[in-house]
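Blinded run. Sample ID left blank on purpose so nobody reads anything into the name before looking at the predicted structure. Input follows.
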Amino acid sequence: MSGPLRVKEAIVVEGRYDKSTLAGVVDTLILETSGFGVFKDGERLAFLRQVAARRGLIVLTDSDGAGFVIRNYLKGAIPKEQLKHAYVPDVYGKERRKKAPGKEGKLGVEGMTPDVLRTAILRAGATVLDGDAPDRPQGDLTPADLFALGLSGTPDAAQRRAALLRKLNLPEHMGAKALLAALNALYTPEELEQLLNK
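Blinded prediction complete.
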């Protein structure tokens, strides 16, 4: 298998172990629903909607009943033309970190091999960006840029970050690292500069 698959769409998974497994397979923004947490978290859902509208969203949940409940919730909450669906096969077993298999005895996203995940994402119709493709709307902001903008490492950084998060309709609890990923996913440096100048 070659290096990570560069895709235009962001991918949403259920939890952090899924996210870390997928991070070696794809080069794109990977977001979490925090399992059923997204049902009660209006900010998280608003952020997923914003990302979906901007660059498209691939839903990659586990193949068990809970995974389908989450998938169906997102289907109802985000316009269908902004969503693509990737499915992992039913494979019985348990993830290495768990003492016992899940309720239905199936492996989740975190238990899949890189090849299976890659195939699932390609089958979903992911927009693959090759080396010559124009990059997705992605800034190249670095932590140093956040510092220079007064959004991290300064005495009033937390307040400035909170004001920016409110202005951009992003979840209020985003730390500097999550904010950086969100800004890079949603805005070009020029767009961000214009926003900050307002």
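Unblinding after everyone has recorded impressions. Residues 132-137 have pLDDT under 50 and may be disordered.
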